[in-house]
Amino acid sequence: MKIIYIANIRIPTEKAHGVQIMEMCSAFSNAGNDVTLVVPKRLNNTNETPFDFYGIKENFKIVKLPVLDLVRFGKIGFWIQSTNFAKFATIYSLFKKSDLIYSRDELPLWFLSFFKNNLVLEIHIAKNNFISKRVFKKVKNIIAITQKLKDFYVKEYGVDEKKIFWSPDAVDLKNFLNLPDKNILRKEFDIPSDKKVVTYIGKLKTMGKSKGVEDIIEVFPRILEKNKQAFFLLVGINKSEIEDIVKIFEKFNINQESYKLVTHIPKKKIPEYLKISNVLIMSYPNIEHYALYMSPMKLFEYMASGNPIVASGLPSIREILNEENSVLVEPDDLDSLAHGINIVLSDDLFAKKIGNQAFSDVQNYTWDKRVAGILNFLCV
């Protein structure tokens, strides 16, 4: 089967959606399909190929279409660029034979909906606009990354629930095989071997919304009170954020010997940082997007590491995690967060138990299994 995946993204990009799209294209190809990823040709700050950048095997084609690269000029520039790319992607797709046209972007599918009926939209956020209304009506099927997102579109748009398939994000388990010894990695990353490492990996914000990293910093003095060897590892932040983050540590009297900041790292290094950790944190605040509509890839990477997880007990998180494979804490509750982290750090047997269960559970959430489920739903 010939699949065209349309994505209005800079490729490669350090943002998570780039990883997700590349992994999906690779998994579609693994399933025996002829896959072409269609993206805009944009300025980039790396000379690496997308396959090298993400550590993904080169088993599909990437076509870059010329566009007016005006994203740096704000909302108007982004709108011009998006419309420009959507039109070029539509023309490309009309003249290329395909059995399936797949995208996370509504605008190119809106144009194509006047000509094609083999369209599939994957949705990651809740939207309500005139473009969405036509797209949801005309596409063959919709893939939603959370059950609550599926429920939203059934309720708000009247979409037939049989048309929407719930499929959360996933992980490539091969990236977690044959990693160097934990002590060797700690030495490489300059993390003392006797420390109990509390780790958060990811950006500070999504769509301008805090991911709760400030809460981890605020409760860390309480962690140090009960676990003198605790050490906070913050990985994946932007260089421009370091100064502000250091000020937060200083505000709560956390000295530099108790934490380490690491800016953006290659995707292939994430499993190594996870391996050296004693507990992995996701302290998302209780706001609509996080509570109902997100399926963070870090969740599945955390699970694949086999290390214990402490996470906000939001509905979206509870679609995957439970009290058997993690410690779920009350969102926006600093006491609950501190207690959850301290429990894991003070009880090695419990930590190992929930970590092992998470690793067992994540075997069902690989990219290949995700694609297999989607293709089965599409009956192709």
From TrEMBL:
User: Start and end of every Glycosyltransferase subfamily 4-like N-terminal domain?
Assistant: 19-174
Ranges for the Glycosyl transferase family domain?
182-358
Q: Which residues cross the membrane?
A: none
Give any GO molecular function from the UniProt entry. Answer: glycosyltransferase activity
Q: Which CDD domains match?
A: GT4_WbuB-like
Domain of life assignment = Bacteria
Q: What PANTHER family does this protein map onto?
A: GLYCOSYLTRANSFERASE
| Protein's recorded name | Glycosyl transferase family 1 domain-containing protein
